[in-house]
Design goal:
It is built from ten helices and no strands. Helix 2 packs across helix 8. It is globular. It is an all-alpha fold. The structure holds guanosine-5',3'-tetraphosphate and manganese (II) ion. This is Guanosine-3',5'-bis(diphosphate) 3'-pyrophosphohydrolase MESH1. Pfam families: HD_4.
């Protein structure tokens, strides 16, 4: 087996352990790990990304924000580049939600190319998930607001990956949201 395959298995196993008790917000309570795996898969399968550090960062992208994982822990295990990408896509949970959302819009254009790729795939996965089923307790307006806000973030990520951006454009168009 290639060493890259071994590294990806180590990484997906780490993420699965960390997200072990977490579920998505859908009615079926889908295991949370489906999301990071799906984000990495969008990057490889649809985005044509073979940069292993980007794929690792995609698998780990919600561990710091949503579990007890620290950036230092990621750095020690997966190295400087992977931990830096995850850091770049991690919201500051100490901030109020509105401020976190505002900062994502503000920071998107200044992120590294690798972090922009992870952000594009993260948004693409979450928007498709919203089309698949509505999270428990979300009225239609909240879903639409998420699309409007995601478009503002994606605007700052343009010029990064044409295939992923085409997919996102189509989803916004279906919702009547201007990109
Ligand atoms: N569409 C969808 N999203 C779900 C579901 N379960 C959990 N999520 C997560 O919820 C987040 C979006 O919900 P919000 O209410 O906007 O954000 P919050 O979790 O920070 O409060 C996303 O976080 P994120 O990945 O960190 O991305 P971001 O939206 O914060 O950029 C997404 O992954 C689900 O069933 N459907
Ligand atoms: Mn995510």
């Amino acid at each position: 087996m290639s060493s890259e395959a071994v590294i990806l298995l180590e990484t997906v196993n780490f993420a699965a352990e960390k997200h072990r008790n977490q579920r998505r917000k859908d009615a079926e309570q889908t295991p949370y790990i489906n999301h990071p795996i799906g984000v990495a898969r969008i990057l490889s399968h649809e985005g044509g990304i073979t940069d292993i550090e980007v794929l690792q960062a995609a698998l780990l992208h919600d561990t710091v924000e949503d579990t007890d994982t620290s950036i230092g822990e990621l750095q020690a295990i997966f190295g400087q580049t992977v931990s830096r990408i995850v850091q770049e896509v991690t919201d500051d949970k100490a901030l109020p939600k509105h401020e976190r959302k505002r900062q994502q819009v503000e920071h998107a254009p200044h992120a590294s190319h690798q972090a922009k790729l992870v952000k594009l795939a993260d948004k693409l996965y979450n928007l498709r998930d919203l089309n698949r089923c509505t999270p428990t307790g979300w009225p239609a307006e909240r879903v639409q607001e998420y699309f409007v806000w995601a478009a503002q973030v994606v605007r700052g990520l343009r010029g990064t990956n044409p295939a992923l951006e085409r997919q996102l454009e189509e989803l916004f168009k279906q919702r009547g949201v201007e990109l």
